[in-house]
TrEMBL record:
Residues 18-89 form the G domain. This is G domain-containing protein. Signal peptide: none annotated. CDD domains: Ras_like_GTPase (cd00882). One of its GO terms (molecular function) is GTP binding. It comes from Lunasporangiospora selenospora. InterPro entries: GTP-bd, P-loop_NTPase.
Length: 252
């Protein structure tokens, strides 16, 4: 008689889901559509375009894969931000094996405060519930021009990102950094690439390489106040950095 281990069968049955997490307008829906989905995208100054989480099943590298599109996290209002946090948390708790990506938009200052605090809040919710490292890929989308691209190539590494996030986590409170960045994809702003799914070949290897994880995530506790708080922290940290440099120079 063959005995089935119900839990093992359940694990086997779980589908793989790709999820792009980021703030509004960074290009999450556009990039998921490049992977074969058909998600609504567009430009909207105040409100995000994607209002609810939605799923579409596609075939990636011969494997049926669920693409999950979610709203951007931070909204201009407290209520909107709370609703988005809830929807994002629910989407992370659907029970799939998740391949996780952070998407951020190219910015002349590297990683924006809004993107950094989003990653901190997601880290916090994951740390509370998982107690182990969870790997993400980082996609920097809409990089404008060769110079900006070179700046990213030169300065942004998984280690530099890890350091930034650790500083923010320390300044915000006590949370350990349980997010690990496996790799970084840099995508230049490109009208044609968006029209003809030209980013597919850049995204596919990362999706294939990413190891799916099972998640149990606590409620993400984002609030609009985070943005002004992080601005203060970043200013304090950079002035502390300046202070250290001045002290070091004085000692030398
Ligand atoms: N030309 C060009 N447009 C892009 C690129 N990436 C994103 N876009 C455009 O940027 C706008 C915002 O993209 P979305 O995919 O809707 O962004 P989102 O992150 O899903 O935004 P929300 O749903 O509001 O959270 C759309 O008009 C896209 O067509 C790019 O690399 N090149
Ligand atoms: Mg969207």
């Amino acid at each position: 008689m063959v005995e089935y281990n119900e839990q093992a069968v359940d694990e086997w049955d779980r589908k793989v889901a790709v999820m792009f997490i980021g703030n509004k307008g960074v290009g999450k829906s556009t990039l998921l559509s490049q992977l074969g989905g058909n998600f609504k995208s567009g430009f909207s100054f105040m409100e995000g375009i994607t209002k609810d989480a939605s799923e579409q099943e596609v075939n990636i590298g011969g494997q049926p894969t669920i693409l999950i599109d979610v709203p951007g996290l931070y909204d201009t209002t407290e209520k909107g931000t709370r609703i988005n946090s809830k929807k994002l948390t629910e989407a992370l708790n659907l029970g799939y094996h998740y391949k996780l990506f952070f998407v951020l938009a190219g910015n002349s200052r590297g990683i924006s405060d809004e993107d950094l605090v989003l990653m901190f809040r997601v880290n916090e919710a994951i740390s509370d519930a998982m107690g182990s490292k969870v790997e993400f890929w980082l996609i920097v989308n809409r990089i404008h021009g060769e110079k900006e691209l070179q700046e990213y190539e030169r300065h942004l590494t998984p280690e530099s990102f890890q350091k930034d996030l650790f500083q923010i986590a320390t300044a915000f409170g006590t949370h350990p950094v349980d997010i690990r960045i496996r790799g970084i994809v840099l995508l230049r702003y490109d009208e044609k690439a968006v029209e003809n799914r030209g980013f597919y070949h850049r995204l596919l290897p990362c999706v294939m390489a990413q190891i799916p994880v099972r998640l149990k995530v606590k409620q993400i506790s984002a609030s609009v106040g985070d943005i002004s708080l992080i601005k203060k922290i970043v200013i304090t940290l950079s002035s502390l950095g300046l202070l250290t440099t001045i002290v070091l120079l004085a000692v030398l």
